[in-house]
# Entry
Amino acid sequence: MAFAWDLYIDGKEYNLQIDEMPNGKDSVRVNGRIVAKPMEKDEQECRISIGGRPHIITRSGDSYLVSEDQTAMAAERNRELGRMALARTRETPLPMMKSSGVKPMMIIWIVAVLAIGGLFLYAVTASSTTKVARNRVQLMLNEMKSGKDVEMQFAIGYWAMNQRVLDNATMSWASDKFDKWRREGDFYGKAFSNIEIVDAEELKGEQNPTVLVTFKVDGAQYKVRVPKGQPISWAN
# Structure
């Protein structure tokens, strides 16, 4: 079975394709070129770079999820922060001091850099999770505004897995679940115009990163749970 996605990164289009090979493994290609070793059947993740940005391909049943690797991006920013901090130490007068005084101060400085970097990584990862969830709900609602079922294709993808396009098998399953979700929230066949994302808060203690997103549609307020890579549900 083949899977394909058209991704737009920094204004450029990239085609990501996953194909099953005769040996049972799955090849990963970007714009026709193999970019990673073939995935084994029991391999759950594959990390690749697309357009200079790290991405994760995650196996989900008989399909795949594709998302930016926010942790890897934050780690790279963290390393850059460390390089900048260490570069500053070379510019300070510390090397001109006696070695007995340099070493303790250097150790304190490096420990401080690592501590700050760790806090930075945590903060960036947390903010990225809420940002992705806010954006996901915004995109989904934008695709739902007409209230017409024939125009819900992309909304279904965002609702189910935060993917604009789903393969046929996943789409069939997600479409029924999406209709049920719309009925539960009185959104089935409902057109609207004004959308406002009010708040997004990452929930603690969740096995899968989950964000509680509050939004308004034509003045009415709603809350949804937005788990990473899984269907959105109404919050009690």
